[in-house]
Amino acid sequence: MITIAIDGPVGAGKSSLSDAVADKLNILHLDTGAMYRAVGLAALQSGIDPRDEHAVSVLCEAGKAQVDVLYHDKQQITLLNDQDVSSLIRTEEVGL
Fold this sequence. Notes:
Elements: H1 14-25, H2 32-45, H3 53-61, E1 67-72, E2 75-80, E3 83-84, H4 92-95
Antiparallel strand pairs: 1-2, 2-3
Helix pairs in contact: 2-3
């Protein structure tokens, strides 16, 4: 198993670099940031401030922020409660 972690500020090109490395090594790129954004989206949809750690934890513990990841043609599909939110999590509202 190969595990590579890349960290850095927003807009630094982490995803682009990760995609290129994954492609070169013929492995999958797990975008954990997308998973965090999905939880943030669940909070917003539930009327919870995503910065409220306790409320977000309660939301997750209640099973109302079930995040899953699928791959299709080496592209990650992020699911929130069984719905594809891959596009929604890239909106400005969710990224704040």
